[in-house]
Each structure stands twice: as C-alpha cells, then as structure tokens.
Design a protein that fits this description.
alpha+beta; SH3 type barrels; Glutaredoxin; 3 domains; 6-stranded antiparallel β-sheet; 5-stranded mixed β-sheet; 13 helices; 44% helix; globular
Length: 362
C-alpha cells in the first residue's frame, strides 16, 4: 500500500495563477474576508502576490498563507508599520481555541506541539523534531548553505489515534485522507500526524513531514513556488530513514532508505529508458496511484545519487529552485533544461551515470 504524503495545493490557486501580478509588500495589511467555508476571517499579514483583479496571496502573522478571491474581501487596510509575526503566546492561544477540547501545548525550542496524546509521547515527538532541526541545519551548513531561521514557530498537530486524525484532516484532504498517515500542509504551514503502533512508519512519517516543514521555513524551498515533487519528496525520504539503534528511532541523515531501495529494485525490470526525464519534467507520476510508489523510490534514489556524487552541482540547483516565485510554474521543457544546466550534463549522460550507481545499492 502506498502511504502518500500530501502537499495541499488548492485547485483555486491553479485556476487563478495566470492572473497574478508579482508584487510583494513588507508592510502589514489587515484584511477581513469570507473563507471557502463561509467563515468570517480577519487576518493581519503581508501580501506575497496581488492579482490584477484585486485577489491576493496573503502570508498571515501565524505563518498561514491565504488565497483570497476579490469577491470575498469585505474590508482591507494597510499601515506603515512593518509586518511582524504573532508572538509564541498568541500562536498558542489561537491553536488551543481552534482545536477540539482536550488538546494542550508542548513547547520546545523551535516547535509548538498541539496534542491530545500522552505527555510522554508528545515529549518523544518534540525530541525527535529538535534532533531533526539540529541535523537539518548542520547538514546544509556542511554543504556550504547557511539557511535562514524560521520566521514562525513550527507547529505540529499530533492526534491520539487515527480516528481523531481522520476527523480533523477530512476537510483539508477529502477522501485522500484514507491513505495518509501524516502530512505537511503548504497553506497552514502545519505538520499533522497521529500516534501509530508501527514504529518504523511512525518515525519515518514524522521525520518526512517535519523535513518538508523545515525546508519551507528555512528558505530551502518557497511555498507555492514551482517545487518539483522529485526534489521535495526525494529529499524528505533521504532524511527520513529510521535508525533503531538510537533510542529515539532516528539519528543519521542520508542512510540508505531500505523501504524505498526495495521498491526501486522492484521497479527496475519495468523501468523505462526515459524514466529520469519523466520524473524531472513534471509531477504526473507522483499524482497517479499506479505509479506513485515507484516515483517516490526513484526520487529517493536520484537524490541519494546526487548528494553522494554531485553534491556541489545539486546544491547549486537547489539554490536556483529556492529563488522561485509563488504561483510561477515552469514548463516540462524548462524543468529539464534547468536541471541539465545545473548538472553540466544532458539527461542520457545522467542516466548512464545514475543507473549503475543505484542498482549497486544494498
């Protein structure tokens, strides 16, 4: 069974993307509007992009990104004061007001874990988050990339069981929630999961989704920019590999991911000659349930190969991607050309170097 992880990208964003005009505001905007569920919202934030028709992509002071259609706006003002994120205390207050009764906050140095699990489990999750945080920044620093600190507290929602997780996630994910055990939401900037009995998948899911969250909050990736899924998912799988020789179940970044290695070897007999090209040019293979498992495994294998053998070129490529603007998409041809330019070789040459390396992994 493929337990897919989801980045929420609403269809309305794709529908209006062509009408956006690139403008960014550093001052605070105050917008009252009606959201998609017909709820009244009042949000203070900064405008990331403004459409010609008056619609906006607004970064709220709690880190949430709102897509606001012009006919939903009731009132809008702007002041000269610079945009400032909400305080940790205010963020906690909003979280507890939003979540069902019985939730409480466990705070670490960089995370707010809103949970209805045992305190012991929340403490374990918090320690795992912080261990990843330290390792994530150290890893990229060792690659010559000093990432930025998150502007907002990193929020994790942890439910006591699958039933309560599904009940919460259904409005966000729809029917796809049935095959998901954790996800990072690009809009809310939150990572959500639940206490599950399968230790290996539990650790892998927490690290995987927390890696997504860190990537989008540290400047490695930009939310709502054109982030190829082979990069996003491949990197998260690269970071996620559990290590049960460690008491927390995870320790080392970049261990061979045995689950995805087995899946990749299973895919090899039917693997097409242009497999890397189709992986890079668009995200179709990830969105098709019939091909998603193989796509995830090949994305991991390609990231592993690049970070082990072409680290300098790949980091330069990731930096190019990190400069992408919200709602600006690249064509399949441009995706491939950008990759080839950064790597300094064409796709057939990349294939000849990648495949022998990947097939020898054990």
């Amino acid at each position: 069974m493929n337990l897919m992880r989801l980045h929420t990208w609403r269809s309305c964003v794709l529908w209006i993307a062509a009408s956006w005009a690139g403008s960014v505001s550093q001052a605070a905007d105050h917008i009252a509007f009606t959201d998609a569920r017909e709820r009244e919202q009042k949000v203070t934030g900064e405008i990331l992009v403004e459409a010609r028709d008056g619609g906006v992509l607004l970064l709220g002071d709690d880190g949430r990104i709102w897509t606001i259609q012009p006919d939903r706006i009731q009132h809008r003002t702007n002041d000269d004061a610079p945009f400032r994120p909400a305080s940790v205390e205010e963020t906690q207050r909003r979280l507890l007001a939003e979540m069902p009764a019985g939730f409480r906050i466990y705070q670490t140095n960089h995370y707010l874990i809103c949970h209805n699990t045992s305190d012991r489990y929340a403490t374990w999750v918090g320690a795992l988050f912080e261990q990843l945080y330290r390792g994530f920044y150290a890893y990229w620093k060792n690659q010559g990339w000093e990432l930025e600190e998150p502007r907002f507290p990193l929020v994790g929602l942890v439910f006591a069981d699958r039933e309560s997780f599904v009940r919460y996630a259904q409005p966000e994910l729809g029917d796809s929630v049935k095959g998901i055990i954790g996800y990072y939401n690009l809009e809310t900037n939150r990572m959500t999961t639940f206490d599950m009995p399968d230790a290996e998948r539990n650790v892998a899911t927490i690290i995987h989704e927390a890696t997504h969250q860190l990537a989008y909050n540290a400047g490695l990736q930009q939310r709502f920019a054109d982030n190829p899924m082979w990069v996003s998912e491949g990197l998260a799988v690269f970071f996620e590999s559990p290590d049960f020789s460690n008491p927390r179940g995870w320790r080392t970044i970049g261990r061979i991911n045995l689950v995805n290695l087995r899946r990749f070897h299973k895919f090899l007999p039917a693997r097409p000659a242009d497999s890397l090209t189709t992986l890079i040019c668009d995200d179709k293979r990830f969105r098709d349930p019939q091909t998603a498992t193989a796509a995830y495994s090949e994305a991991w294998a390609l990231n592993y190969f690049l970070l082990k053998t072409k680290r300098k070129e790949y980091v330069a490529y990731l930096k190019m991607l990190s400069e992408g603007e919200p709602l600006v998409a690249r064509s399949p041809r441009d995706r491939v050309k950008m990759f080839e330019t950064a790597m300094g070789i064409d796709m057939p040459t990349m294939e000849r170097q990648f495949l022998p390396f990947a097939t020898r992994l054990r």
